[in-house]
Amino acid sequence: xxxxxxxxxxxxxxxxxxxxxxxxxxxxxxxxxxxxxxxxxxxxxxxxxxxxxxxxxxxxxxxxxxxxxxxxxxxxxxxxxxxxxxxxxxxxxxxxxxxxxxxxxxxxxxxxxxxxxxxxxxxxxxxxxxxxxxxxxxxxxxxxxx
Length: 146
Ligand SMILES: NC(=O)c1ccc[n+]([C@@H]2O[C@H](COP(=O)([O-])OP(=O)(O)OC[C@H]3O[C@@H](n4cnc5c(N)ncnc54)[C@H](OP(=O)(O)O)[C@@H]3O)[C@@H](O)[C@H]2O)c1
Known about the structure:
Blueprint: E1 2-4, H1 11-17, H2 19-22, E2 26-29, H3 35-38, H4 40-48, H5 50-57, E3 62-65, H6 72-77, E4 87-92, H7 95-107, E5 111-116, H8 130-133, H9 137-144
Parallel strand pairs: 1-2, 2-3, 4-5
Antiparallel strand pairs: 3-4
Helix pairs in contact: 4-5
The protein binds NADP nicotinamide-adenine-dinucleotide phosphate.
NADP nicotinamide-adenine-dinucleotide phosphate is lined by residues 5-8, 10, 13-14, 30-32, 34, 68, 71-72.
């Protein structure tokens, strides 16, 4: 399993350079397209939604959007907290990859919420503001009407 956490503008190059190494692997994509950092490609990715955009950049990869809707600070400080855990929304087209990702999220001390296929990742893209709201799984399901 691979966790991809790079400035979003690097994603296409990584997809090209590492196509052989990445093919068929489960890849958790935490990157967020941010036009102020990544330039015009991020505008296009945001419009499409990062799930579908990343899959175009990383063909042949078993892609799961994961860990993009939580800050690094909260990832470090809120893991395994007592009471209801913070939610980590997940989206992917590969059911088995989603299951593995969900187990990993649980092991990391958070509550996985499978939102749907990659196209639904747009619902928890950076622009959705979900990261800032820091929802529990119950709250996230309410917000997204799941
Ligand atoms: N930070 C957060 O709170 C947070 C939360 C959710 C999602 N994200 C998203 O996660 C991604 C990473 O964020 P970050 O804060 O970790 O950013 P970062 O510190 O700027 O970048 C992470 C790593 O990306 C590598 N990198 C940069 N350009 C590269 C390239 N052209 N090819 C390969 N690797 C490259 C760098 O490796 P080297 O050090 O070896 O150059 C760096 O260690 C971003 O898309 C961000 O939007 C961040």
